[in-house]
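Thread: quick sanity check before group meeting

JM: Hey all, I'm pulling together slides for Thursday and realized we never actually wrote out the predicted structure for the chain we discussed last week. Dropping the sequence here so it's in one place. If anyone has concerns about the input, flag it before I start.
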Amino acid sequence: MILLLGFGVSSAPAQTEPVRQANTEVELIPQFLSLSRGQEFWVGVRFTPDPDWHTYWRNPGDSGLPPSVDWQFPPGFTVEEVVWPRPHRILAGPLVTFGYDGETFLLFRIRSPTDVFPTDEIPLTARVKWLTCQEICIPGTASFSWTFAVSDASPAPNPRFLKYHKKHREQYPFHEDVNAIRAYDRGPVWEIVYRPSQFVPGMDQVQFYPYDADIVDYQAMHEFTVKDGVYSVRIKKAETADEGSIQRLEGLLVFDKEGYPPLRPVRIDVALEKSEMEFGSRPITGLSSLWGAMVFAFIGGLILNLMPCVLPVLSIKVLSLIEKSKHGDDKIFGSGVMFTFGVVVSFWVLAGVMLGLRFAGQQIGWGFQFQSPYFIVFMAVLFFCLALNLFGLFEIGTGLTRVKASDNSFMNGVLATIVATPCTAPFMGSAIGYVLTKPPVYTVIVFTALGFGMAAPYLLLTKYPRFLRAVPKPGPWMAHLKQFLGFVLMAVVVWLCWVLSLQNGALSVILLLGGLLILGLGCWVYAVSRKGPVMLVVAALIGLAGLYTACLAAATPEAAAEEGIVWEPYDEEKLLAYLKTDRPVFLDFTAAWCLSCQVNDRTVFQDKRVAARFRELDVIAVKADWTNHDPKITRAVNGYGKNSIPFYVLYPRDKVKEYIMLPELITPGIVLNALEKYAVDP
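JM (edit): ok, ran it. Output follows.
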């Protein structure tokens, strides 16, 4: 080499061979084969440990040592940045470490000075140190040297560097907009609030890797919630954290999604704030306090009484109040109190079941029980028997009424709550969405307000019975009205059969109708022979046979989802692909058991003007059918800050702009205006 320099012959770059030591292969790979003056370039260091061995990240966690490189350059060269790929958690007994159990490519950004000349040759020397561990740990050291020729021409890229950089580039962090991330000091936890530039629904795993040691409890899992397209990550502090000296949070925020390729980590470097600031320009719920959520829940409960799914029980309860009005005001008010108690207790039970299933890892939301074919069959049998009762075929609850008259009112409240669950009223969705990311006590409080809102009209009628005087006095007309309401209940049974057909197919409907027919025969036998013990046994056996046949309807295989002509079925991966196009994307979160959804579908999406505008604007229409339980759709519902349906999301043609959400109750005009504003070419 010295001889060649003496004769003024430029030497070719000397690429060093990989070094194998400490159960690891290490290689130094520059980005270019030559340099120009003042150029910025990268040098990669590749670590490939043997199977079952691992190296460490810059913060190794509870144990270990990160790799280090001692550089030797001519004067004027500087190392300006080190880029570490995303690590992962490595568990070793009670210890949690951060590192790599496979190949990794560590990057160093270096800048050359401007006072180098084409006749110069630049030597580069690097001494690499690392630690490789399995059950034991072995330190390794390797030295590398490289000589760069200086040229005025564009430097030639190093194919080997391009190979490994391409292979690992998705592992390197990216910097989000500074306004997209906030960090808060919440006493025992740090909280990172992050609104991504492109929201990815369905994220179910998150990990924060801090650059600084001893500020995070590595053993504790993070609390991760999604609301209004904003990720919130709560990280337990380390007991040894010196909170007074910690002014910033720095590290990597890594999101993952089961069955999906790893996403690039997000570089976090933000100042800590002591008090929460308003984040985002367009919150979904518009609620910032528990009081607001309670008011919304109460109003939603009031409106819930007007929903068609509550109409049958509403009518029965009104008839009951009319009948009891002749017994005195005190008796009526007691009935109203028990009805209210039944509604509120039912909402408590519903809240408890939802919280319990959530804590067990289930993805559920409002109306989740209607996703079960068994519950659909149960409701169909219940409404069928109630209809036969209203037709006068038999009387139910007389024995119970003799024990305590108010028990009927309590059970009416329970029944009203059960049949109300497939409906979502305005204001109600926002209130439930508010408690989605709050402690369990918030859920109980808001559900209590929802129950009181639903029961309030009945309680007021019983407190002020003079309003009932406008209704005709009890008489034969009540029997006719009861029979009419029996047909209303039969219509509900027809609707439930339709829901079951979408869940389990036509065979399930045939089995359910057959079971109801047999059950009706048993009720008729009971009605005409209630004094004969033998016939009572026959009636019971026939009724059990009908119930068994109806249960078979719920056990039939699920029907395949039908794809419409316009709507694409919801799929997370396809949705991500659609969002990368320049076409508008419209999401419809719906279910067959959601009457509000079906009303919107028939009055809005089957409107010729709306359908034509969808075609003209080349809108990608995606239908997230929640009729059957689907954890992916539930995660998406929660990801948009909701816990109930219907709701609608429109991604504009220009994806740089934020998506918008339409109200629960929509009209053709609302949808057309949204399309004109956000889906037309900018």
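AS: nice. The longest strand covers residues 137-150. The CA atoms of residues 584 and 653 lie 4 Å apart.
JM: adding both to the slides.
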